[in-house]
Amino acid sequence: MTAIQAPAAHAGGESLIAYLTAWAASAPDAAERAAVAKCVGVLAEAGAAIAEAILRGPLQGSLGAEIGVANADGDKQRALDVLADQKIVTALKSADVAYYASEEEEAILTLNAGGALAVAVDPLDGSSNIDANISVGTIFSVFPASAGGATESFFRPGREQLAGGYIVYGPHVALVFTLGAGVAHFVLDPADKVFKLVADGVKIAPSTREYAINASNYRHWIPPIRTFVDDCVAGAQGPHGKDFNMRWVASLVAETHRIFVRGGVFLYPADERKGYEQGRLRLLYEANPIAFVVEQAGGGAIDGFNRILDKQASTLHQRTPLIFGSAEKVNRINSYYTDVHFERTPSPLFGQRGLFHA
Ligand SMILES: O=P(O)(O)OC[C@H]1O[C@](O)(COP(=O)(O)O)[C@@H](O)[C@@H]1O
Ligand SMILES: [Mg+2]
Ligand SMILES: [Mg+2]
């Protein structure tokens, strides 16, 4: 893990609970910190339970079976989507959480009226991969609950998050999160089912030779994306002056973790398909927490034009284009949106910037 620094303040192997307890005890805003620490702790417990179901695979029944109900976003829910959502709701009820927003819930749920926090979750990210035994994950975002109520708690800039991160259920189970000052990386030890610290102060490599995008959408892409990818494909003969490698897992958490480990850039842009005018991924429980954790590791996260963490949701399941990863490459992609590059492949749709500039 060349991109991950050696543990700084905390010793490797420290348990998640010890880490969170030490963090909660170390500052003046003690009540809020205690609530956040408890919240991240119970999310990790729910993650360990979800991991157990995933580990049993088909022995658990068909986790990937469509159960006939479309979620709020119109996607068919799978058995594991629902199981994960239920485990997380149950866990968060035991924490100081007032409001819960989820990909799998039509509306915001009130869990503990008067609670200190509002939590947005993608309970199971990468659902299409479940039966193929490919990594999936859970993504979470924690805001302070607003006195203004449920929607005000979530409809605010992502930079106001108190914590954010993800769990990836892969060959091993990893938990990566930020509490607002750096990024910690834990791994679930199957021997005693305890999340143990692997590294604190994790950084994403600033430059990269790897990009991730669903290239089957090439014909639908807007000019800046098409030009950027054409330039990558041109390799050492193109304007980047170096060869690139491409990956696409179709699991945002798995792509994020790969970028944490060895650098890279991820792109799910807006495109010209109907319904993809704002890309595919959701601002509140996918883009916000991923952007928070990525920025805290020195990376960048934009929608093409704007920093993700400056965007403000106005609907619960709002989508956003999402481009994140190694800072140098994200800045370069931003320049494809803002300078003359895109004029090399003009498009009438891109001319209407409002379409892509929410
Ligand atoms: O199938 P596509 O269009 O390549 O989309 C893949 C993307 O969709 C997602 O699966 C959406 O997440 P969900 O599985 O939570 O709906 C991401 O994990 C992934 O990056
Ligand atoms: Mg998802
Ligand atoms: Mg999901």
From TrEMBL:
UniProt pathway annotation: Carbohydrate biosynthesis; Calvin cycle
Annotated GO MF terms: fructose 1,6-bisphosphate 1-phosphatase activity; magnesium ion binding
Cofactor(s) the protein requires to work: Mg(2+)
Residue ranges constituting the Fructose-1-6-bisphosphatase class I N-terminal domain according to the UniProt record: 41-198
Annotated positions binding substrate: 125-128, 214
InterPro entries per UniProt: FBPase_C_dom, FBPase_class-1, FBPase_N, FBPtase, Fructose_bisphosphatase_AS
Cofactor binding mode and count: Binds 2 magnesium ions per subunit.
Keyword Hydrolase: yes
Residues engaged in binding Mg(2+) 1: 103, 122, 124
Family (UniProt): Belongs to the FBPase class 1 family.
The protein's assembly and partners: Homotetramer.
Protein name: Fructose-1,6-bisphosphatase class 1
